[in-house]
Specification:
The chain is α/β, with parallel strands linked by helices and 301 residues long. It has helices spanning 11-22, 56-69, 131-134, 150-160, 179-186, 281-300, and strands at residues 2-7, 27-31, 73-76, 81-84, 89-92, 97-105, 109-111, 127-128, 142-146, 165-169, 191-194, 197-204, 208-215, 221-225, 228-231, 235-237, 267-269. The relative contact order is 0.19. The structure holds NADP nicotinamide-adenine-dinucleotide phosphate.
Length: 301
Amino acid sequence: MFDIIIVGAGPAGLTAAIYGRRASKSVLVLEAKAWGGQIINTPDIENYPVVAHISGFDFANQLYEQAKALGAEIVLDKVVELRDLGDRKEVVTPRQTYEARTVILATGSENRKLGVEGEDRLVGRGVSYCATCDGNFFRKKTVAVVGGGNTALEDALYLADLAEKVYLIHRRDQFRGEETTVAKLKQRENVEMIYNAIVTRLLYEKRLTGIEVTDKLDGSVRTLALQGLFVAVGRIPENENFRSLVELDPSGYAVADESCHTRTPGVFVAGDNRTKAVRQLVTAAADGAVAATEAVKYLNQ
Ligand code: NAP
């Protein structure tokens, strides 16, 4: 029986582990894929206080080491169900059932897809959701990034250093992401912005060879010959397995205020899978601290 089981080893989950251990509680972190969460895809973090520049990969590794050094157990296992038995919770994975007095859900989110024919089968053959993982395969080639948030902007900037040409395709005429990154992109000669446009067709044989882009205003279709398509159109919160114990909003985010409490006593939610206005590394870490502190209060009651 653990004091706290944390589901998800991203910045929120690992920060919660640090706070839980520093309060002398036993902590197990269960992670389905790899520790670090989506931040490992960010090439350069420059908006985390004190740290002027760090790669997402290094950030994740250092956070992992910090949580481990404080005594958190971190296990790769996918949680498929959560059961509430009052002052005891069961956390179910395909391998076993773990028990804890409190649970913090820090599961983050997964990639949203474009939903264009061929998208799934072309992953690894031209379609990617991670510029820092796959960008290197497209040195001196032509690529497109789709999306208008910070991920799309940062991906385009990263790829502009590698690829010969980068199209940045956004469905509106204004980006959602930071103005400073937009300004940097506008200075790059090999970046072409295509506004008010959506990708309507993928052209391929064995690999992606091009895309068709439809202008939303006049319906005209433009064909772009390219080798890589980086999809950065947001993420979907990973909360479905907890629906019976946690209220979800219409977009699937776990409903909780800044206290990180869910409707089930002893179950907390932290990070990008929670309803909130600002989803950033610093707010994910803050959520981890709050959720663990609330869990400790609950345990000490
Ligand atoms: P996001 O902010 O939700 O942006 C998703 C973008 O994709 C939006 O521009 C959206 O268009 C567009 N989109 C959604 N569905 C689409 C579709 N089917 N077809 C075409 N376009 C579509 O997602 P994100 O960029 O992944 O960022 C997620 C969160 O992480 C944000 O809060 C972001 O600020 C944060 N983040 C922070 C950093 C950093 O701090 N360094 C880095 C990366 C991400 P609309 O604008 O029209 O809705």
